[in-house]
Amino acid sequence: MSKPLILVSNDDGITSKGIRVLVSVMKKIGDVVVVAPDSPQSGMGHAITIGETLRLYEEDIFEDVLAFKSSGTPADCVKLAKHYVLKDRTPDLVVSGINHGSNTSISVLYSGTMSAAIEGALEGLPSIGFSLCDYSSKADFSHLEEWVEKIALQVLERGIAKGVALNVNFPPKRNESIKGIKICRQADAKWQEEFAERYDPTGRKYFWMAGNFVNFDKGEDNDEWAIANNYISIVPCQYDLTAHHAITQINKDWDWDKLK
Amino acid sequence: MSKPLILVSNDDGITSKGIRVLVSVMKKIGDVVVVAPDSPQSGMGHAITIGETLRLYEEDIFEDVLAFKSSGTPADCVKLAKHYVLKDRTPDLVVSGINHGSNTSISVLYSGTMSAAIEGALEGLPSIGFSLCDYSSKADFSHLEEWVEKIALQVLERGIAKGVALNVNFPPKRNESIKGIKICRQADAKWQEEFAERYDPTGRKYFWMAGNFVNFDKGEDNDEWAIANNYISIVPCQYDLTAHHAITQINKDWDWDKLK
């Protein structure tokens, strides 16, 4: 059997530590092609490049791996990979990350890492976003490698439901080793923003956005609980945003005489 | 009863035609505050500004309306409005748009218009994104005004379920008038990308992303069908991306002996 073709992208940029770890693990499993942003793209959400040009350059950065850096967003990178770089070859797996920082709970909405994975799912490809819940500049990725490999192999073997991408978050390295995997729902939480005001040398005001993460969720079946309890969280994410329950409710509750 | 407080944002920028129409309608209903991007932000998805500064300037652009332009994304604008501009005042309604172009189906993922509305929903506020399915530079917004007003009034009266924002798309102006409103699900469709290659004056390659919209959906309960048949589509969208059906399936299907 030929080796699986694995497309790797991320949002921290092609020189980041997380993508190096991800590429090294994927090389054990299959033929790897990388298309990743040429600079960090954190917080890009599902942005794409419209009305501006895109660059794409081959970059000899990973040993024995065909790799390209692009000026585009993570979602752009997956589109470029699928429809330009690979064209007639279909990846067996799309992996994104390993993000340096958490993408649990509501952070999935703002996550460039997950937008690359969701873009893969949109193309009908089994797709996984990996993130490490550790913001330290010296974050240790070594405890993840065996788990990244196991999860990727399992997805290659069993596939993922249509319209779904996996959001995998790893707990930070702790004294106790990782307890295992929990398949979770997205926790009910939000970022509570605060804006720090500053003045530039010309006296004009500017702002830094900062925020505190607020977790409203008391359950034990969500990703925040899993990470806090030293489990790997896997949330299956869908790109059909329809709130089906709300369709019935609106049809029933609204005053349709006023809406003619 | 005091007038409702209405926050207006968009992704086409504060000088666009669509936001002028939206502000003029909202002024009939309530007290309006605008915080919108200082330049077009189409395709920004749910991007936010991390690690870079934000500007926010008051702009006397709409008669008798407090308005600010920001260097940030649509999601940034709603965060700035809620946590800085309005601070102790809570909007009764957040409206975004009217986007110049469709945000039906999968386009919701890439939509800056909808990211502003979803950000509003995240803040627990009734939130609506409005878009006109007409890309023509001379797009006529006049047939929308009565409908925008009716929908906004209905939402102020009846509210929206927690965790849900409304994605409202209007058909383009046609000879036949709009038939009414359909509460829909997001159509199963995608953009099929093509990349046009060009060379700059120094001989280096660059790309333009282009794409064809491909609709796989044969149903009549989705937003694409509604627009094609001259109805206004309203898709209730949720920010909990969890594919709940897939949780059960993964727990059952995966080979857990290999994942210890």
UniProtKB/TrEMBL annotation, chains A, B:
GO CC, any one term: cytoplasm
InterPro entries: SurE, SurE-like_Pase/nucleotidase, SurE-like_sf
Residues annotated to bind a divalent metal cation: D11, D12, S42, N99
Domain Survival protein SurE-like phosphatase/nucleotidase: 6-193
The keyword Hydrolase appears for this protein: yes
Cofactor binding mode and count: Binds 1 divalent metal cation per subunit.
Subcellular location: Cytoplasm
E.C. number(s) listed in UniProt: 3.1.3.5
Cofactors: a divalent metal cation; Mg(2+)
Enzymatic reactions: a ribonucleoside 5'-phosphate + H2O = a ribonucleoside + phosphate
Principal location: cytoplasm
Keyword check for Hydrolase: yes
GO MF terms, alphabetically ordered: 5'-nucleotidase activity; metal ion binding; nucleotide binding
Protein task: Nucleotidase that shows phosphatase activity on nucleoside 5'-monophosphates.
UniProt similarity note: Belongs to the SurE nucleotidase family.
Protein name, entry field: 5'-nucleotidase SurE
Organism: Algoriphagus alkaliphilus
